[in-house]
């Protein structure tokens, strides 16, 4: 569990660690570099107006999308892409280079060593972590804790960066962040100032908010993007089987944008997801549920966590799917100690939900 810092010590550490953030600017190339490569400044401005602020982000768009930007012809797009290819390398690299690139990945603590061990060190940057489960299972509690732990120095397993929070269900509570910040010994006012928050009301509004983030992330050191929840507005704005195909297509575009943001700016994306009843779950499952969003959402998430309710106030977090993590569970402390012997020894990951957010269980 992370030790508590005094506010002065925390601010000093954050100022020292800020130098490390400045050294990460080579993770992406600013779109302004196209001007020195012979691209008209007016055309660069058009790209920025369309939400493209880095050459890396530019290369993640198809030429069809780029020609859809007002004022950019096919000839201009070809010239822009050719110039961008000379600035950033989007071709093959060796496995050794890929391993070296992975060293830029930061793992942000969840506030609980048990959950961190479950996740291989914490929530990863350059990846999407999905947490699905029914209401009151702990998903939003983890989101609020991450709002604070992301701002910790990297020496304390934080991200030393700002947080962007897109709220589709109206569950963000700034007053909830205050006791969590106090637990970590941080100034609540400064912590809240480093969170940019937006309430989304339609799926289109949600997508436009993502487009607007590129400008902020290209100028300021963000380390976490929270979307709580990713599916809610799609389930409202699209109804019936007749609109299912269109819904999944729009959802896929949203998720594609999230993946690009994660990799372009080396930020962690934590998104919550709802569950739906699964009639075909089997007779041996008392309350069968599965995550909403279907295969489109399943393939987009890098790491999938399942949150569920247990006995009394007990909560269980399980690694549902991950490319590099074994299947294991973490169980919240309340009412669960007597059941721990049911778990294999190496899977005893115990945490609790406290007024100060997600934390390790105490005896």
In words, what does this structure look like?
By secondary structure, this protein is α/β, with parallel strands linked by helices. 40% of the residues lie in helices and 19% in strands. The protein contains 15 helices and 14 strands. It has a 10-stranded mixed sheet, sandwiched between helices. The chain has a two-stranded antiparallel sheet with strand order 1-2. It has a two-stranded antiparallel sheet with strand order 8-9. Strand 13 and strand 14 form a beta hairpin. Helix 9 crosses helix 10 (174-183), helix 12 (203-219) runs parallel beside helix 14 (244-265) and helix 14 (244-265) runs parallel beside helix 15. The radius of gyration is 21 Å and the shape is globular. The model is unreliable at 1-23 and 334-348 (pLDDT under 50).
């Amino acid at each position: 569990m992370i030790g508590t810092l005094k506010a002065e010590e925390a601010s000093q550490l954050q100022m020292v660690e800020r130098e490390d953030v400045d050294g990460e600017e080579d993770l992406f190339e600013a779109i302004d570099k196209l001007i020195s490569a012979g691209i008209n400044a007016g055309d660069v401005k058009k790209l920025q107006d369309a939400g493209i602020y880095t050459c890396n982000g530019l290369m993640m768009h198809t030429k069809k999308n780029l020609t859809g930007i007002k004022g950019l012809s096919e000839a201009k797009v070809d010239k822009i892409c050719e110039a961008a290819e000379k600035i950033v390398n989007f071709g093959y690299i060796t496995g050794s280079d890929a391993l070296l690139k992975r060293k830029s990945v930061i793992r942000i603590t969840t506030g609980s060593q048990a959950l961190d061990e479950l996740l291989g060190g914490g929530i990863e940057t350059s990846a999407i972590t999905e947490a699905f489960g029914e209401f009151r299972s702990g998903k939003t509690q983890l989101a609020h804790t991450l709002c604070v732990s992301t701002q910790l120095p990297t020496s304390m397993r934080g991200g030393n960066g700002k947080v962007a929070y897109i709220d589709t269900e109206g569950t963000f509570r700034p007053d909830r962040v205050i006791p969590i910040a106090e637990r970590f010994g941080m100034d609540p006012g400064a912590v809240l100032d480093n969170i940019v928050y937006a309430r989304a009301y339609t799926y289109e509004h949600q997508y436009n908010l993502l487009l607007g983030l590129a400008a902020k992330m290209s100028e300021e050191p963000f380390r976490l993007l929270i979307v709580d929840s990713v599916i809610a507005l799609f389930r409202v704005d699209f109804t019936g089987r007749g609109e299912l195909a269109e819904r999944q297509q729009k959802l896929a575009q949203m998720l594609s944008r999230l993946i690009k943001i994660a990799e372009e700016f080396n930020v962690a994306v934590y998104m919550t997801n709802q569950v739906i009843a699964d009639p075909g779950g089997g007779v041996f499952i008392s309350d069968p549920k599965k995550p909403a969003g279907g295969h489109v959402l399943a393939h987009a998430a890098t790491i999938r966590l399942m949150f569920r309710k247990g006995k009394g106030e007990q909560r269980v977090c399980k690694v549902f799917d991950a490319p590099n993590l074994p299947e294991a569970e973490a169980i919240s402390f309340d009412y669960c100690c007597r059941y721990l012997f049911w778990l294999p020894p190496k899977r005893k990951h115990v945490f609790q939900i406290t007024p100060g957010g997600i934390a390790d269980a105490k005896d």
